[in-house]
Design brief:
The complex is a heterodimer of chains A (269) and B (553). Chain A has 269 residues and is mainly α. Chain A has helices at residues 3-20, 22-25, 57-93, 95-110, 113-123, 130-144, 147-161, 164-171, 176-212, 224-228, 245-268. Chain A has eleven helices and no strands. In chain A, helix 3 packs antiparallel against helix 4, helix 3 (57-93) runs parallel beside helix 6 (130-144) and helix 7 runs antiparallel to helix 9 (176-212). Classes of the chains: A mainly alpha (269), B alpha+beta (553).
């Protein structure tokens, strides 16, 4: 592990830890409206000022970070598992099964996922709690985000299937799922890890995009996406620079992830 | 006086020749500058349309952009002064409505021609009315005149006099003609030949509409100068409000109508002379509950929503002052009811905005068996009061209002889930599937007359949002509203109409089928280069007197 990767890991750990300590660092909570000081600049009481309806921006950034950083990996895990299942099995079985699975993957890839998410949100029940909306949003992202990873894993599995050590195992009488789990799957792990790490920043940004469209995490719960919506009306950077904190945090975290997973990408390649 | 002028003149005569020439040059320059400006016109006005105009046919207008073009190009028989809200003569010098409210006689101005030179006469008015009332045309403007079954009769008394008789009384008949731009019966240019101050000169689809001064416009100012002063109006089609604001700041456009309060404050901070707050507009924001019998919601929730006490309690627990102050930065007023105080004649001044009182709300709820249990409001069967409010995604002020109502209602133990949906999905739920619990939306009111709200208040109407398309009124108070609205619509007596509509407002206040939240102020921006602008609350806010505007430094 290089020094840069160590620093990136440490900083990511720090961000996660601080967000997990939100209850202590911002005891007022993310939903409380201080309406008398709505839209206020930073002060001793509100370190990053208040949003347009008076909610403490610092508290919202902390809680929003917690939600985005904890649930993006969960969505990444879901998508990676789905990719492993579809891509791994397709690559291992080969033939018509591989072609069918890849055709289905291509079909998924061609879907306009944004419109699909909007449609799914529109047909969902209305009376879901903010926490449920968070879970639904990230689940949807996870369920729709497995396709690219599936193609990579299918190609990787196909090359493993024809590797000498797998041929040898097959010649020794090991067949079927046993061969897959004992000999193929362990060799897929580096690619799986890489896909997992690569997906996290993608899902963070996807949630942010959905939040900007007003279709992400339900109010009053914050997420990076909903926090970024505040930047919509800004006409100059110098106007209210403290509003850029969520954006800076997002860029920093995604960059840190890039440092952390650079090695993984090499493995996947 | 006379003597003094002569003395002064003789002094000039004795002045050195150089000074005389200098003075003469200054006078000539001054004349060229002042007089020449009028001779050359008042420049070009530029502003944005927020969507593509759907039509240039004034009888088919059904959208804001087309309405703006109709206002600037169409000649009307009577024009409502947007500032005084009074009717003024247009192409008609005078008019008289019959006592039964069915007929109207117009005396027209003579010697007027369309923009292409075709003469204007009573024949054009008759043609326009016939076209307007033709069911095949589906004219939205014509719908306002449809008071009952039967044909509209037009009788040309003389080239400058015409009588129009409707099958049944039409309330506020003369006012409705403010929306009727007269089209030519004979012009080869059809609807493109106009009688208004401007004429469509160029149209680039998706980009802009260019209007030029109508050389045949009949109106002159008090000094006898031909109107309009402006040479042309450039209308850029621009849906993005941020871009519109940026272009205004750069001086690329001169006006912004219906400015957001946030932009208004930002602009006011840097250029206070460019922003105008004309006070409360006719537009309101409101919330309502789903009372539709066949709606796919639990029966106990439908019972809450159909309870007058429940709706009133929600209204009492909503802090309208905070909504006005926080969301609209003070550029809004707590709403009283369906009519804004800006509507001077029709507003029921006896009504006051519901005061914020969570304590009163809880007492009101207790009357229906609701009770607090560990901070959670429950009905008499023990169901926790939880419902969702949907609003359209991307509308910042509505999203903020919904979140503030969410916190207000939390104080009386009501849990609200705020859901933002894309507009088509929201409309589908609201009008087709009725799969919603509460909706927060706005109402844009362009008509001062209550007749414009018939489609909202009649229980049989599609737009009777909380419970539309009722075969017979499901409640006694809705039956009373139906009766009162029909009574006012069929009466020509303004006093009786006002009395009936006042009672409608009282019923709506008491029953709260719509929980009216705020009336937004009419905010606009006018560049300092535009002269003669007096923004008002009615559409079109900033250019209602376009014929008298000039642009120049």
């Amino acid at each position: 592990m290089t020094a840069w990767r160590r620093i990136a890991c440490a900083l990511l750990l720090l961000v996660v830890s601080v967000s997990l300590a939100a209850n202590w660092l911002a005891p007022g909570g993310y939903a409380r409206q201080y309406r008398e000081v709505a839209g206020a600049p930073p002060s001793a009481a509100h370190w990053l000022g208040t949003d347009e309806i008076g909610r403490d921006r610092f508290a919202r950034v902390l809680y929003g970070t917690r939600i985005s950083l904890l649930l993006a990996p969960a969505a990444a895990l879901l998508s990676t598992l789905m990719a492993a299942f579809v891509g791994g099995l397709a690559g291992y079985m080969g033939g018509i099964w591989a072609r069918l699975a890849m055709a289905a993957t291509d079909l998924f890839l061609s879907l306009p996922w944004l419109f699909l998410l909007i449609t799914m949100r529109a047909v969902m029940p209305l009376n879901v709690s903010p926490m449920a909306s968070v879970l639904v949003t990230f689940s949807m992202l996870g369920l729709l985000g497995w396709t690219s990873a599936a193609r990579v894993l299918c190609a990787r599995t196909r090359s493993l299937r024809d590797a000498d050590f797998v041929r040898q195992a097959r010649a020794s009488g090991i067949r079927g799922m046993r061969l897959f789990w004992i000999h193929v799957m362990p060799n897929l792990k580096p690619a799986l890890y890489a896909q997992f790490w690569i997906s996290i920043p993608v899902f963070i940004l996807s949630e942010a995009n959905l939040g900007i469209l007003g279709l992400g995490v339900a109010e009053p719960m914050p997420s990076w996406g909903s926090l970024l919506k505040e930047l919509e009306g800004l006409t100059s950077i110098g106007e209210e620079p403290w509003k850029f904190v969520p954006l800076i945090l997002l860029v920093v975290v995604v960059t840190l992830f890039q440092f952390v997973l650079s090695k993984q990408e090499e493995v996947a390649a | 006086m006379m003597r003094r002028q002569i003395v002064s003149s003789s002094r000039v005569g004795r002045a050195p020749r150089a000074v005389f020439f200098l003075l003469a040059s200054l006078v000539a320059f001054g004349w060229l500058f002042v007089g020449g400006a009028v001779a050359q016109g008042g420049g070009e006005l530029r502003f944005c349309l927020r969507s593509e105009p759907k039509t240039f046919d004034p009888l088919k207008v059904d959208d804001d952009a087309s309405e703006s073009i109709r206002y600037l190009t169409g000649g009307v028989l009577v024009r409502m002064n947007r500032q005084t809200q009074a009717l003024e003569p247009g192409l008609a010098e005078s008019w008289e409505v019959s006592k039964d409210g069915r007929g109207i006689v117009f005396k027209l101005r003579s010697g007027i021609a369309f923009s292409d030179g075709t003469p204007f006469s009573a024949e054009d008015v008759a043609y326009t009315v016939q076209q307007l009332m033709d069911p095949a045309l589906h004219s939205p403007t014509g719908d306002s005149f449809r008071s009952g079954p039967g044909k509209v009769e037009t009788k040309i008394i003389s080239p400058t006099q015409i009588s129009i008789t409707f099958p049944a009384a039409v309330a506020g008949l003369d006012r409705l003609f403010d929306q009727v731009a007269i089209v030519s019966a004979h012009s080869p240019k059809k609807e493109m030949a106009v009688l208004g101050p401007f004429v469509v000169a160029d149209y680039k689809a998706g980009a802009s509409v260019l209007l030029k001064r109508n050389p045949n416009y009949w109106k002159s100012d008090a000094q006898g100068r031909k109107l309009p002063y402006l040479d042309s109006i450039e209308l850029d089609i621009q849906a993005n409000r941020d871009v519109e604001m940026l272009r205004f700041k750069r001086g690329e456009i001169d006006l912004i109508n219906s400015l957001d309060s946030e932009y208004f404050d930002k602009l006011a901070a840097t250029s206070p002379q460019q922003v105008r707050d004309a006070g409360p507009s006719l537009d309101s924001e409101q919330m309502w509950f789903n009372e539709v019998a066949k709606a796919p919601i639990p029966a106990y929730k439908r019972a809450w929503f159909r309870s007058q006490n429940f709706r009133r309690a929600i209204s009492e627990a909503t802090n309208r002052d905070d909504l006005s102050r926080v969301v609209f930065h003070g550029h809004a007023q707590p709403a009283v009811g369906p009519v804004s105080p800006a509507n001077k004649f029709w507003f029921n001044a006896k009504l006051k905005a519901e005061p914020y009182s969570p304590e009163t709300a809880l007492k009101t709820l207790q009357a229906d068996g609701f009770h607090l249990d560990s901070g959670v409001l429950k009905d008499r069967d023990g169901n926790a009061v939880v419902f969702s409010i949907i609003t359209n995604a991307g509308n910042k002020s509505r999203e903020q209002m919904a979140v503030m109502i969410q916190e207000d209602l939390q104080k009386i133990g009501v849990h609200v889930n705020v859901v933002t949906l894309d507009f088509p999905s929201l409309i589908a739920r609201m009008t087709q599937t009725f799969d919603y619990e509460a909706i927060l939306l706005g109402l844009t009111n362009v008509d001062l007359d209550p007749n414009g709200e018939m489609n909202l208040w009649l229980s049989s109407s599609d737009n009777h949002q909380w419970n539309p398309q009722q075969k017979t009124p499901e409640t006694a108070w809705e039956a009373e509203i139906d009766k009162l609205m029909r009574a006012q619509a069929s009466s020509a007596d303004a006093g009786k109409r006002k009395e009936a509509f006042d009672r409608v407002q009282e019923i709506v206040y008491e029953q709260a089928p719509f929980i009216f939240l705020i009336n937004k102020n009419a905010l606009s921006a006018v560049s300092t280069t535009v002269h003669g602008a007096h923004p008002v609350i009615l559409h079109p806010q900033t250019f209602w007197n376009a014929e008298q505007l000039t642009v120049g430094k």
